[in-house]
């Protein structure tokens, strides 16, 4: 073996690591210098370097697929060992993280949960003050019931479905004054009815579902952020931006947003680890809660297509059909009762003007509602928020496409298309809660530019308070 040169003794090539991609491969100059590792033989050359190296870009290691910059997207170790003939062969990967360590919250998770509890305390303080400041009767001397601020708008539909079913007493779309409740998917009402058997008060049961679901969602979001960003603070930052977002009140109310995130984010996390059965199962449950589960299923399919490499991994392809099962079953149920496979979509059209219009028509109609003084001021302000949320969504979609993050771009793109082709925009600010790439990208931006956090908190926190007061006082909040 040639002697180690003084230059190589003095300079040891650093090996940068990333929580997502693993150890990064050496530069081209290092590879051509004929360096190897003690105990490992390089294909060419013969000098040695203490430490370890990663496989060339684009190679695959056991248990994971290649990730940009070397390493894999899963929990695998480096490769690059060689046999006596000089042919490279993979070394044994590092032992995967145990299930106990994966599911038991660590110090970073506990910091996220502490932040979650603090923001819940702030929201409940706002709800308490709203009972006294904005009673239905302005001359009353008594505050409203303790949980009344939370029983608003869509909550009534979920309560009626959980308590009475979709078509009580043969009532339905053919009945005068029908409330179009079939527009809401059955996942949340079914869980509400199940929790009600233990918690007798319906509103308390709904709030408990959202409270527990929100905790699961923020933990999953933090772990997704830490996968994408090489900084332990990334998870905490992403969760902070989510919990202080203008529509964060809907994560605490008895609505579907928290439950959907508690299922969709673990599904995405499982997909990052190439655990397709778990990803498909969680996405199927998310699809029973909101139609957005279909957008998640499409994103998982794209992620599967761009990450899977080996024939063994392709055997997981049939699992990707599982998320479509709940919407199909629900449509079949509605077909039995109404004769219409798309009864849920037609209910949205009747009740919320979600019939198809060209995107520019939807923008024009929303702009008219926001600034033409055709609606009361409260609805006009919410229409302005809808326009702003659409702009944010389009910018997010463009950024994801530019960075070639195709799965996330598909998810956000389908969401924008569904919400942006109605008569006018409805509930787009609420939908931003479900755009987890937005919170991860903001976390990354804030790590590069610390002032971003200060600006966001100073602007978003007052808006969150406004939206919370609007919803809790019974006004329309999107």
Question: What attributes does this structure have?
Answer:
single chain, 478 residues, two-stranded parallel ribbon, 56% helix, two-stranded antiparallel sheet, mainly alpha, disordered N terminus, 6 strands
Descriptive overview:
The protein has 478 residues and is an all-alpha fold. A hairpin with a 5-residue loop joins strand 5 and strand 6 (88-89). The protein is 56% helix and 3% strand. Helix 6 (187-196) crosses helix 7. The chain is globular, with a radius of gyration of 26 Å. The protein has helices at 6-10, 28-32, 99-103, 107-133, 154-164, 187-196, 202-228, 234-243, 249-252, 257-272, 276-287, 292-307, 311-314, 325-338, 343-352, 359-371, 377-402, 406-419, 428-431, 436-448, 451-472; strands spanning 17-18, 22-23, 35-36, 47-48, 81-82, 88-89.
Short structural summary:
The protein has 478 residues and is mainly α. 56% of the residues lie in helices and 3% in strands.
Cα end-to-end separation? 72 Å
Q: How does the overall form come out from the CA principal axes? A: globular
> Whole-number radius of gyration?
26 Å
What is the chain-wise order of helices and strands?
Answer: HEEHEEEEHHHHHHHHHHHHHHHHHHH
Largest β sheet strand count, sense and barrel closure: 2 strands, antiparallel
Overall pLDDT level: 83
The helix content, as a percent range, equals 55-70%
Fold blueprint:
Blueprint lengths: L5 H5 L6 E2 L3 E2 L4 H5 L2 E2 L10 E2 L32 E2 L5 E2 L9 H5 L3 H27 L20 H11 L22 H10 L5 H27 L5 H10 L5 H4 L4 H16 L3 H12 L4 H16 L3 H4 L10 H14 L4 H10 L6 H13 L5 H26 L3 H14 L8 H4 L4 H13 L2 H22 L6
Parallel strand pairs: 3-4
Antiparallel strand pairs: 1-2, 5-6
Helix pairs in contact: 4-7, 4-8, 4-21, 5-6, 6-7, 7-8, 7-10, 7-20, 8-20, 10-11, 10-12, 11-12, 12-18, 16-17, 17-18
């Amino acid at each position: 073996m040639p002697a180690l040169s003084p230059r190589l003794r003095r300079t040891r090539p650093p090996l940068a690591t990333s929580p997502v991609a693993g150890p990064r491969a050496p530069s081209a100059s290092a590879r051509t210098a004929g360096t190897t590792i003690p105990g490992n033989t390089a294909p060419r050359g013969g000098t040695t370097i203490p430490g370890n190296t990663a496989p060339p870009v684009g190679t695959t290691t056991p248990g994971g697929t290649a990730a940009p910059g070397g390493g894999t997207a899963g929990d695998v170790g480096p490769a690059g060992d060689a046999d006596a003939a000089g042919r490279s062969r993979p070394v044994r990967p590092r032992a995967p993280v145990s299930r106990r360590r994966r599911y038991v919250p660590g110090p970073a998770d506990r910091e996220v949960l502490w932040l979650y509890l603090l923001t819940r305390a702030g929201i409940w303080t706002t709800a308490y003050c709203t009972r006294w400041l904005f009673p239905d009767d302005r001359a009353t001397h008594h505050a409203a019931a303790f949980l009344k601020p939370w029983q608003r708008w869509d909550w009534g539909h979920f309560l009626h479905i959980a308590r009475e079913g979709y078509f009580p007493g043969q009532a339905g779309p053919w009945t005068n004054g029908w409330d179009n409740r079939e527009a809401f998917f059955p996942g949340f009402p079914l869980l509400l009815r199940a929790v009600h058997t233990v918690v007798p008060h319906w509103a308390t049961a709904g709030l408990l579902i959202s409270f527990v679901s929100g905790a699961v969602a923020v933990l999953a979001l933090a772990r997704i952020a830490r996968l994408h960003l090489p900084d332990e603070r990334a998870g905490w930052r992403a969760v902070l931006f989510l919990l202080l977002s203008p529509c964060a009140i809907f994560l605490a109310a008895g609505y579907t947003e928290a439950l959907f995130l508690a299922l969709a984010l673990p599904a995405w996390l499982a997909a990052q680890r190439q655990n397709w059965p778990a990803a498909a199962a969680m996405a199927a449950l998310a699809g029973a809660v909101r139609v957005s589960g279909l957008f998640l299923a499409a994103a998982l399919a794209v992620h599967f297509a761009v990450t899977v490499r080996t024939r063994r991994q392709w055997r997981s392809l049939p699992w990707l059909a599982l998320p479509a099962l709940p919407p199909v079953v629900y449509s079949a149920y509605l077909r039995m009762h109404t004769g219409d496979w798309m009864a849920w979509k037609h209910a949205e059209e009747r009740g919320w003007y979600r019939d198809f219009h060209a995107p520019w028509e939807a923008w024009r109609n929303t702009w008219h509602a926001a600034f033409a003084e055709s609606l009361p001021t409260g609805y006009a302000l919410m229409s302005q928020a809808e326009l702003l949320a659409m702009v944010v969504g389009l910018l997010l979609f463009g950024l994801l496409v530019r960075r070639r993050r195709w799965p996330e771009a598909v998810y956000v793109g389908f969401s924008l298309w569904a919400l942006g082709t109605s008569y006018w925009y409805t509930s787009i600010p609420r939908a931003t809660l479900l755009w987890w790439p937005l919170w991860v990208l903001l976390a990354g931006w804030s790590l590069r530019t610390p002032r971003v956090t200060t600006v966001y908190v100073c602007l978003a926190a007052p808006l969150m308070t406004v939206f919370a007061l609007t919803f809790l006082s019974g006004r329309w909040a999107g």
